[in-house]
Queue: 2 jobs
Job 1
Amino acid sequence: MTRIHIPPIKCQGIKSKLVPWIRDIVQWNDRGRWIEPFVGSGVVGFNIAPHHALFCDSNPHIIAFYAALNTGELTPGQVKTYLVSEGKKLAHYGKAYYYEVRERFNTTYQPLDFLVLNRSCFNGVIRFNSQGKFNVPFGHKVERFSKAYITKIVNQVEVVYKQAQLSQWTFLCQDFRQTLADIHPDDVVYCDPPYAGRHVDYYNGWTESDESALCTLLKQCAGKFLLSTWHHNQYRGNPYITTLWTEFHMFTREHFYHVGAKETNRNPVIEAIITNFIPRQLQATPSEMKYEQLLLLEREMEYAVNVR
Ligand SMILES: C[S@@+](CC[C@H](N)C(=O)[O-])C[C@H]1O[C@@H](n2cnc3c(N)ncnc32)[C@H](O)[C@@H]1O
């Protein structure tokens, strides 16, 4: 059974449930670098567990948190102490304390406050207003940081921390164009950009020109790449599938998103993975059978910590 480690940071579009599928397509051999221009929560790369990796994102707060764990500047012990003390204050002062932390974060941008907000805000989303200020409301639970919940978060932190200490990982806050400017033949690039029109905020705009720039850069990619995108939902299809990505290989399957309170946000989306290579297991398979075979290859999985 495959174990999926859930990372300490939550974000919209988190791909926890797609990790086994991505891993089966990649067949990672640890020869080159694992590169993620849109790392988000990090769930994909952290579960691939590469020795060399470049993890990037345009959101400086995600990068600052993971970079601090990577350098050892922030340890699981410090995270625990902070969550215990902030949890007590939240339980004592209630909702008002959440807003105090939010205000403090929007002035000092401390990685530990980012974690506190991310794990106590409404629905665990990351959203910044047009001034770049975190603006997600309180998640309603003043007893949020129970002993069990703190242990769960600290365990999640510890997995990333230990892996980072044993590996050669780099975290950079930069635009995907910069990340994709220097890809080597042994590298594998996993791209998971925002889906146009969904979850737009200060760090998450996505336009047709972004998608087209991404396509141009991935066409020139010297290594292998995988792109996560959506194929269709019950209302419409992704127009870029037939206009931009036609020359690559594509695999699809259903994914159920759990972020967002509204029922409409919980509708299934047919996810697509677009690649510039044929997965090794399918190389000798007639093309019309490839998709079904890939589904059969997916292993039973177990989530190390609850998937929210
Ligand atoms: C769908 S999320 C990635 C989710 C991630 N794969 C996971 O499973 O957690 C997209 C990420 O792209 C980042 N992003 C948005 N625009 C970007 C850009 N122009 N360059 C780099 N990163 C960007 C966002 O901050 C966000 O973290």
Note: Residues 2-58+174-303 form a domain with the Rossmann fold fold (CATH 3.40.50.150).
Job 2
Amino acid sequence: MSAPIVWRFKESKQRLVGGRCDSCGRAFYPLTYGCPYCGARSVKEFVLPREGKIVSYSIVYSTTDAARFETPIVLALVDLGVARVIAEITDIDPSEVSEDMKVEAVLRKVREEGESGVIVYALKFRPLLVDGD
Ligand SMILES: [Zn+2]
């Protein structure tokens, strides 16, 4: 559900790379080998906007994922304009989350995998900071 993705260390942590379908033109996240909308096989990397707004959300009070320590977790459907993604909302008290709230993507390190140098990040969103913060 939280869509962990693997980035090589040298790659930028700031770009939100999803995919776009050559056939139907829709964008999606995460990048997959087939289009989730029309099933076409021809998809290309596509850099998604990092800012969007919450369409809807739910608060999860328990999880079976032993890697997590903090609950509750806020899972939200975030509209990025060209695509919608489901991700965890972070850096906020769950009681303060609301629909239409503006958020921005952040990639949070989940774990490192030893000598391979692979670092696993999970996409999350946090409230968009207001100018002058
Ligand atoms: Zn498609």
Note: The beta strands are 4-7, 16-21, 27-28, 43-48, 51-60, 73-79, 84-89, 102-113, 118-127.
